[in-house]
Design brief:
3 strands, 3 helices, 16% strand, globular, alpha+beta
Length: 61
């Protein structure tokens, strides 16, 4: 069974080329990527990040 891979804010920022402050702002505005909050730790599911990115793909000709 494959276990989910959870990423830190810094790891997501690196993958997506977004700043950590943008990720924080999105969380505060309840927009952007889904995330988990465990105590003060914020984690993102890698599969959900990749899915979100694919769903927001713009295909050009």
């Amino acid at each position: 069974m494959n276990r989910p891979q959870y990423l830190t804010e810094k790891e997501v920022a690196k993958i997506t080329s977004l700043s950590t402050s943008k990720l924080q702002s999105d969380r505060h505005a309840n927009t952007g990527f889904n995330y988990f909050k465990i105590g003060s730790a914020v984690r993102y599911d890698l599969v959900e990040i990749l899915k979100y990115m694919e769903e927001h793909r713009i295909v050009t000709r």
